Amino acid sequence: KQEVTQIPAALSVPEGENLVLNCSFTDSAIYNLQWFRQDPGKGLTSLLLIQSSQREQTSGRLNASLDKSSGRSTLYIAASQPGDSATYLCAVRPSSGGYQKVTFGTGTKLQVIP
Amino acid sequence: KAGVTQTPRYLIKTRGQQVTLSCSPISGHRSVSWYQQTPGQGLQFLFEYFSETQRNKGNFPGRFSGRQFSNSRSEMNVSTLELGDSALYLCASSRRYPDGSYNSPLHFGNGTRLTVT
User: Residue A47: closest CA among chain B residues belongs to which residue?
Assistant: First the structure.
């Protein structure tokens, strides 16, 4: 059974700081890994999707890396801004074929202080 | 291009009642999955539909059911509501091939906030 862990559960940083969010998973047989942000009371907004064959993906100030062998992914946020304050979740889709469910981490709640 | 649309945004029901939530996926997306989100349990998978057939189901009691229509719109139903069913219910859509492989990210709607009193 896939387990996905995100540490720390909460993070508070001053504006402008570069930061790294972590996502660990127990089963390396994955199809892809997706990072989301969630604002309070809202749905999830897709940030980056990394296929199992890729090592990293970049979008603007965001960079996500994937190391399947160690069961880890990191989301790097450069020059953080107050608008980045949200909960960040990672989700892993297994590669076992068929219709397998996506497993979500419990999230990291980020606060960027002006 | 319109995103995933969930209706209604908010619902207040009493114990024992039943409720139906609706989800319209992004145009062209035939896979629709449902999730329950609570502060204590996080995001939990309910079920996934593709081509009007339920393809996978999470560990929820039979009171939770769903269906998908020919236009890919989906509904989920919860019967005999309990206080513990209070949660944010999220729907996600994605594009996938008939062989089960995916070629798009999951896209979520803004959810339906269900409160059971």
Answer: B105
Closest residue of B to A38, CA-based?
A: B110
Q: Distance between CA atoms of A74 and A57, rounded to whole angstroms?
A: 11
Q: What's the rounded mean pLDDT across residues A59-85?
A: 97
How far is residue A69 from each of residues A25, A106, B84, B109, measured CA to CA in Å? Answer: 10, 22, 38, 33
Rg of chain B over all Cα atoms, to the nearest angstrom: 14
Q: Which residues in chain A touch residue B35, judged by CB atoms under 8 angstroms apart?
A: 104
Euclidean distance between CA atoms A7 and B87, whole angstroms: 24
User: pLDDT for A87-109, tens place per residue?
Assistant: 999 999 888 666 778 899 999 99
Spatial separation of the C-alpha atoms in residues B22 and A21, rounded to whole Å: 33
Residue B109 sits at the chain A interface (C-beta within 8 Å) = yes
